[in-house]
Amino acid sequence: KKMAKQIVFDEELRRALKRGIDILADAVKVTLGPKGHCVALDKKWGAPSVIDDGVTIAKEIELPDPFENMGVQLVKEAATKTNDACGDGTTTSTLLAHAIITEGFKNIAAGAEPMLLKKGIEKATGAIIDEIKRLSTEVKGKEQIAQVGTITAVDKEIGDLIAEVMEKVGKDGVITVEESKGVKYETEYVEGMQFDRGYISPYFITNAEKMETLIEDPYILLTDKKISAVSDLLPALEKILQV
Q1: In the prediction, which pLDDT does 3 show?
Q2: pTM (predicted TM-score)
């Protein structure tokens, strides 16, 4: 048996969306800034989690009303995109989205044309971004990087570690963060390039005791094609034999 679909229009829909957006914004906004408060999240198992991260809080919010929940999902998407792009600023994104939607709904209720309003918001966004870029200060030097890292992680030790690693590898270096198995922060510097994959065949092993492969000055084949048979490699192998 198919479930009946609920359909709402115009002001009724906007009010439902707005209620959901208000609930999400109210839960997230208290975490804004370095003096922000924490939010307690109940879990089905174990003790509640105390969180001060906007996107983590947003991800936990689900409302029973489908239209209110739709509003939650819209703003949650904005926070998630910001987190994916920058790793921070999710609470600010949520509050900006909430403010834009609140004022937008007011203007629509007063008779504004929605598409013209959308174009106006997009133009204003572009102008604001340009002005923010003009006013911004580039982070330079180990000390400033440590300050930014400390504020973001709320931990001076992590901030100092980030600055140290970034200074060591340079702006073109690659930094990978992994969960530690111990209680201390550890750093490992790898020269050249590292692929986290093992050898495809045990016949590649050069040191049976250590079960490792060490090849000096090898030829490396880079391809964007799928290699499904040895015959795919024969032309390249024949070229190598001629060198």
Answers
A1: 57
A2: 0.67
